[in-house]
Amino acid sequence: MTFPPSLPALDVEHMQMHAAVGGLRLNVLYIRSGTFLQSMPAHAHSGKSYELHYVPAGRGQLIADGVRYPIGPHTLYMTGPDIVHEQIPDPGDPMREYCICFEALPAGEHADPDSSAIAELFLRTAFWHGTDTQQLSDLFERLSREADLQSIGYYMSIRSLVEQIVIAAVRNYACNRLSAHAAPQKTLDDKRLVLIEHSFLSASDTLTLPGLAQTLGLGIRQTERTLKQHYGLSFTQKKRQARLSAACSLLVTTTLPIGRIARRVGFATLESFCTFFKKATGISAGEYRERRQEER
């Protein structure tokens, strides 16, 4: 698609981009925006190509396969393979349009059920016209900024935004119907890793190896092996690390006396805490607090 004479704010044509949405593989041919100052002649796309049109402002008419449709602010329309269409702007309020053209192919047999449902709905909707309900303006504005600024990671961000825009289009087709399929659940190993993180953060003062093993549903040796695998530390080393982190945080974020901090992180005496802290950091707890307060 070539826009009539205008000043396009977005033109992503030479960037090679492949995206994936559910059970769809997308080969993005171009992304553009512009203001229609004259009519776009009737045309159609190739047998695998879809063109997503979003009009954030302005007015006009769309003629698709001989049928006229109104175009106004927040109009979304999709023109798929072999859909002959032309756009006619309102001379007094010419429409602005974002446009993404891509080839769309099924991802294959290994897509999950929800992904397959997205692909099926998309591929069988060769034409759709309606008012956007998914805040596409925000997504396209973010895409424009990414393309303009080209900050680190902009290519990945643009690809992600294209995927979100296509999902938003499908949600418009489906009138926001709920997914019929649950999201994949964490593996048991991942759940245990979350429990380990939570245990050391919330109970580093009282946590014991048998207690952690019971929480994880593992034996003591298995628990030790799990800690070694994920952190490269024994239980004792990991507990010391957690207690030191908790102590440092309390020293910086509170005005608690050092003796109370020692008890809060599980030390029976101030002396044992001070010995532990200086050995771990090279300075006393009081010096640590002073230095960090100066930095802040």
Summarize the structure.
The protein has 296 residues and is of the alpha+beta class. The protein is 44% helix and 23% strand.
Architecture blueprint of SSEs:
Layout: E1 10-12, E2 17-21, E3 24-35, E4 40-43, E5 49-57, E6 60-64, E7 67-71, E8 75-79, E9 85-89, E10 96-106, H1 113-123, E11 127-131, H2 136-149, H3 154-173, H4 188-202, H5 209-216, H6 220-231, H7 235-253, H8 258-264, H9 270-281, H10 285-295
Antiparallel strand pairs: 1-3, 2-3, 3-10, 4-9, 5-8, 5-10, 6-7, 6-9, 8-11
Helix pairs in contact: 2-3, 5-6
- List low-pLDDT spans: 1-8
Q: What structural category arises from helix and sheet content?
A: alpha+beta
The CATH superfamily label of the largest domain reads Jelly Rolls
In sequence order, what are the helices and strands, one letter per element? EEEEEEEEEEHEHHHHHHHHH
Any idea what the CATH architecture of the largest domain is? Sandwich
Q: Level of helix content? A: 40-55%
- Strands, count: 11
Which CATH class of the largest domain is shown? Mainly Beta
Largest sheet: 7 strands, antiparallel
